[in-house]
Specification:
This protein is an alpha/beta fold. 47% of the residues lie in helices and 15% in strands. The protein folds into 2 domains: 3-186, 3-Layer(aba) Sandwich (Rossmann fold); 207-362, NAD(P)-binding Rossmann-like Domain (Rossmann fold, 3-Layer(aba) Sandwich), CATH 3.40.50.720. The chain is built from 17 helices and 12 strands. The longest helix has 23 residues, at 394-416. It is globular.
Length: 447
């Protein structure tokens, strides 16, 4: 395999799809050496097949707003790879959603799901619908219209969507209600992230953040460090950031910053449980303004407009918001502010320049496909509970989640350990996920 040859062919075939091409290039560069040691992969054209999704559904979503005006959005579902299990991946509602974004997310999801050790393929979907400023009634009508087009493409043993940016428990509820109406069968396993009264799993809302902190804890332990007392800067204030903040203070760390599109809130003495609870209120408000935290707790924190979380001195940076949110300049600012570790919690949260800067400056770094896999892992556990018609206790879910994150860390160490003893977590995560999917594809023939 020659990475640049494949990338030039992909770029010609899919011009302008920057996020997708970036994600593919990162993986191919990591696996090139291992891939070329397996001529059977080359013979079966595993990479050429793996980088293209199995199928993409694109559809119009028409709904009526509170003023009685007809609105039209685009909806998508990218079913990327089902070699190791049914398609699994979130739905994202955000004005910036494009096919390129969803292809990148579905591609990443394929390897992330492989790392969890659970039998799940990769998918992603969503719409350019912007939930910011919308009423509950508008969001309900949109979700119902979206599911009206999607429902025939999904199922508990076919494709199981979950939440993502802009899609939380409220949206999953509206989507699931419409699915049940249309399918006329009660499939509790067709969506994950459900409410606790209708098939949801304990700890699923917290799972991505919890899993990220478990992974970070193992990474630090491997490096001879402890998370207790360390200062963390977190971007975002949605479910992922909320779960990360909860687990961080439980493990004895101190969250000194959270951020939003409008700026950063610095919290010198560390975030409190009351502030963490208020993050949920901020998420539900649809305002998307982190300044609300400083307005609510003016004696505990301060807001700076236009700044990022990386402007606040910290030991560990946790990007939890959006892809490519942390640039090379941000990485340099973090280093100048004393940061020595970055664990990517958002999908492809760091730009390539930032990753190269971290690695070349001996700053501990781990990629999102490993760090944030706790969310989809717990979705997989929710599917298992649904199939068994059981609901596990919080301790059992948490124990299984912790075990999965420990296993993911071990896979990264196994495949990412370098001749000098250092660990390249990017290479380790990519090779571990790739080998599992590639082997499954090879054994199932040319399809």
């Amino acid at each position: 395999m020659k990475v640049q040859t494949i990338m030039s062919q992909l770029a010609a075939k899919h011009p302008g799809e920057a996020e997708y091409l970036q994600a593919v290039q990162e993986v191919l560069e990591s696996i090139e050496e291992v891939y070329n040691q397996h001529p059977e992969f080359e013979q079966a054209k595993i990479v050429e097949r793996m980088v293209e999704p199995d199928r993409i559904f694109t559809f119009r979503v028409t709904w009526i707003d509170d003023q009685g005006e007809v609105q039209t959005n685009l909806g998508y579902r990218v079913q990327f790879n089902s070699a190791i299990g049914p398609y699994k991946g979130g739905l994202r509602f955000h004005r910036a959603v494009t096919p390129s974004m969803l292809k990148f997310l579905g591609f990443e999801q394929t390897f992330k799901n492989a790392l969890t050790t659970l039998p799940m393929g990769g998918a992603k979907g969503g719409s350019d619908f912007d939930p910011v400023g919308k009423s509950d009634a508008e969001i309900m009508r949109f979700c119902q219209a979206f599911m009206l087009e999607l429902w025939r493409c999904i199922g508990p043993d076919q494709d199981i969507p979950a939440g993502d940016v802009g899609v939380g428990g409220r949206e999953i509820g509206f989507l699931n209600g419409m699915y049940q109406k249309l399918a006329r069968e009660y499939h509790t396993g067709v969506l994950t992230g459900k409410g606790m009264t209708w098939g949801g799993s304990i700890l699923r809302p917290e799972a991505t953040g919890y899993g990220a902190l478990y992974f970070t804890q193992h990474l630090l332990h491997k490096a001879g460090k402890d998370i207790k007392g360390k200062k963390l800067s977190i971007s975002g204030f949605g479910n992922v950031a909320w779960g990360a903040a909860k687990k961080a203070i439980e493990l004895g760390a101190k969250v000194v910053a959270i951020s939003g599109p409008d700026g950063v809130v610095a919290i010198p003495n560390g975030i409190t449980p009351e502030m963490i609870d208020y993050m949920l209120v901020m998420r539900a408000s649809n305002r998307n303004k982190v300044q609300d935290m400083a307005d609510k707790f003016p004696s505990l924190c301060s807001f700076t407009e236009g700044k990022k979380a990386w402007s606040v001195p910290c030991d560990i940076a946790l990007p939890c918001a959006f892809q490519n949110e942390l640039s090379e300049e941000d990485a340099k600012e973090l280093k100048a502010n004393g940061c020595w570790c970055c664990c990517e919690v958002s999908n492809m949260g760091c730009q390539p320049g930032a990753i190269h800067f971290f690695q070349s400056n001996k700053i501990l770094f781990a990629p999102g496909k490993a760090v944030n896999a706790g969310g989809v892992a717990t979705s997989g556990l929710e599917m298992t509970q649904n199939a068994e018609h059981l609901s596990w206790k919080a301790e059992e879910v948490d124990d299984r989640l912790h075990h999965i994150m420990e296993s993911i860390h071990e896979q990264c160490v196994r495949y990412g350990t370098q001749p000098d003893g250092s660990i390249d977590y990017v290479k380790g995560a990519n090779i571990a996920g790739f080998m599992k999917v590639a082997t499954a594809m090879l054994e199932q023939g040319i399809i």
